[in-house]
Amino acid sequence: MLVKSFFAATVEAALAEGSRELGPEALIVQSRKALPEAQHLGRYEVVLAAAQPPGKAAARADAGGPAGTGEPLAREIARMRRQLDSLRRSLSHPAAPAALSFEAAEIFEALVESETETGLASEIAQAAAAQAGPDSGKTTLARDAAIAEIESRFTVDATLGREGAARRIAALVGPPGSGKTATLVKLAVVHGLAARRPAVLISADTYRIAAADQLRSYAAILGVGFELVETPRALDQALDLHRAKGLILIDTPGLAVAEMDQGADLAAYLATHPEIDTHLVLSASMKSADITRAVDRFEIFKPAKLLFTRLDETGALGPVWSEAARTGKPLSFLSAGQSIPEDLEPATQRRIVDLVLPREDRSRAAA
Ligand SMILES: Nc1nc2c(ncn2[C@@H]2O[C@H](COP(=O)(O)OP(=O)(O)O)[C@@H](O)[C@H]2O)c(=O)[nH]1
Ligand SMILES: [Mg+2]
Q: Quick one: which atom of ligand 1 is closest to the CA of 182?
């Protein structure tokens, strides 16, 4: 076993020099900013370990591992190669933290792949590195630390209406086509019909005639009440009229960027009635920056929760939890398809974490 430090102006250069000297199979023990006393040798230090210097490498493929772990050499080399690849890829990312263990670098890479906001991905990876220590081979420890860190950054709240209130009132707001009406019908089935709670569906969507008709038809099929309201005042009256109902769900017009003004009165009404639980409905397949813009734009409604649809249309859930982390708003429900009501599920941290940080064996199998 040969352990050696390589210094250079960049991590990449130090790595390149190290692999030239020790061979491409060399294992990275550590990469960090050089200590002050070694700064004259180069800004970064990469510590590499090799089983033996190249050339002298023995052909005893099933001899004990280089660290004396008893692991067959071939498997050890394959593992080192994966770690090197993974570290190289993540180090080439502009937001990658300078010094990460392999395990933390792999976590960073998985998070970036899930399109988690890079600053957040970097913080999670660093926290995982700090918890698991610099030692390699502690994949589970680092992963558990990363999971705990992710879970501490966002919340879920899969409830409708104020908990404990005699009647539950919820409104769905969001951009056109985000899935408000479809989700509202799913919620009516699960939290109304299935929970034996008398429900009424209210449509405040008077901009598109067909939109209200769609909800009216669903209400008829489900056998629940339906009201179309044109103004916040009419909404107020409808809420009063249906005060004995256990569940009231309010559908709202999908407001495009240029239409936000038209929704100002409704927004003001919902924002000032805390008994109405407003969920902002967004498509998980939207670009991350567009999700952030939509969240900021719909803040006039003061939505309490975020509800994501179209999980079936994206493999990258990073933006979903990054947005929950950024805003501090809990995730309520997740929709992953058009089936009513099967494709609606309560948001759980476990589900989100499983999607953004696939298990080691699963990501390996897929690679
Ligand atoms: N694939 C998929 N389609 C969805 C999902 N949720 C809603 N949709 C579909 O998206 C389209 C627009 O939904 P709609 O509820 O009318 O959007 P709204 O304008 O926000 O009311 C409809 O065809 C829905 O069936 C989902 O989770 N996955
Ligand atoms: Mg609609």
A: 15
